[in-house]
Structure prediction request, 351 residues.
Amino acid sequence: MAGSDEVNRNECKTVVPLNTWVLISNFKVAYNMLRRPDGTFDRDLAEFLDRRVPANARPEQGVSSFDHIIDQSIGLEVRIYRAVASNGAEGAAAVTLPILDFLTGAPSPDPFPVILFFHGGSFAHSSSSTAIYDHLCRRFVKLSKGVVVSVNYRRAPEHRYPCAYDDGWTALKWAMSQPCLRSGEDARPRVFLSGDSSGGNIAHHVAVRAADEGVKICGNILLNAMFGGTERTDSERRLDGKYFVTLQDRDWYWKAYLPEDADRDHPACNPFGPNGRRLTGLPFTKSLIIVSGLDLTCDRQLAYAEGLREDGHHVKVVYREKATVGFYLLSNTDHYHEVMEEISDFLKANL
Prediction:
């Protein structure tokens, strides 16, 4: 059971920088206002409270972006980020062009990664234009010298399972089909999947489908991926309510996303659980799994990594014992900088 709010706030403040505490605490206050006990969600207020930034054709800090609809039937949109071309630029930066020229352009001879990114928000919150994710995607462009495609997937509870996964699959197929996102002498797409929280969950399930369909993914990068199950883990009991997140919060989001008659052992929530599927023999991609030791679902993420290893797949876990959820959103800790370096190394090694 979660401790008192005052005790938990004080303990949290001793672990995270003040500006991180303020940022995530503000999100928590807003999120608590939006969830209703009957399982509905105040979407109008959510849209009003979400701090968003527009795409910028004019570069900011060396990165430009634009929004593009890839499926008119459901209005599925992506935000595409690219580095600004300059003398001596390499990778995707060398082919930075006006938007229409870029989308209709030929493959680049210089290999570069394409990161298909799924934002967090527990399947219900945020978007591809939310300021914190816009900032993170720009960071990914700089460290990868590639292109980031951030997916504005449909959100729960209006759009339950499997809508977010279907949108992720649609985005992957689109990215794979674009000549402008192919590179290298073999002119192939070098696509990585990435996401945090619910976005990490989506990345896993899209990667499984890609393996089933014979679509080659270069790697998965999961940050505090959101998994669950009906039986509580040690970290869930021990950290409930201590560092921003409560089990009651998590249970609400799973109930909002999963099929109405499902429990948390549904494979979407608990991929290696009693109703899950083993991936032995499947050509599943390599994984970089970032785990925060003060995230109440850290045991779930470690068990997920172990499940991949048991099925014969390549996994690297970066475990930050004293990190909380969302540490990768602000560049104010050693956790942030060291994890960004890990991501950069993973991209280079698997390009």
